[in-house]
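Deliverable D2.4 — example input (structure tokens):
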């Protein structure tokens, strides 16, 4: 199964829509990890599981979500309430509590992927305001029973090879 994971688009409607349109037919789930700064129900977020970030002022977004697709369980939270800029410990606890296979988060704008205790952690970075990289990024995660391929892409849809990772499950 494949997942599109994006975060921290900070009001970029057209650019977010381009990313979604580019991949929506090839993925099983789309997740926005917060700070979209777009109102719930907007066409740009149609079909996208979205959580509330610290810059999202609409009350209709949940702080966290747990979604299962094709046997893969996802936990997503923006990260500002989970202290992600300091440690992944609270994310790990949330993943354990929700029995997640994949933990998606944002907030730091720094693209990263790692594994811990059998869970895959993914921060897709920011398509608008990247940090520690020179291009805005998002992720396509291809997850099977054996492995999780995490591929980072630039806003233009070009693979950012140096960020990608493959994890055994």
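Example output (designed residues):
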């Amino acid at each position: 199964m494949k997942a599109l994971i994006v975060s921290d688009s900070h009001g970029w409607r057209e650019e977010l829509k381009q990313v979604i349109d580019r991949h929506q037919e090839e993925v099983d789930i789309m997740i926005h990890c917060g700070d979209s700064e777009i109102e719930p129900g907007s066409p740009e977020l149609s079909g996208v599981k979205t959580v509330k970030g610290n810059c999202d002022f609409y009350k209709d977004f949940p702080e966290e979500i747990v979604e299962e697709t094709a046997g893969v369980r996802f936990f997503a939270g923006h990260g500002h309430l989970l202290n992600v800029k300091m440690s992944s410990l609270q994310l790990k606890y949330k993943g354990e509590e929700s029995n997640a296979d994949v933990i998606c988060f944002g907030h730091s704008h720094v693209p990263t992927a790692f594994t811990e205790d059998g869970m895959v952690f993914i921060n897709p970075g920011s398509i608008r305001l990247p940090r520690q990289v020179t291009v805005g990024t998002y992720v396509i995660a291809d997850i099977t029973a054996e492995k999780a391929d995490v591929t980072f892409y630039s806003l233009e849809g070009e693979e950012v090879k140096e960020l990608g990772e493959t994890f055994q499950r």
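The longest helix spans residues 13-23.
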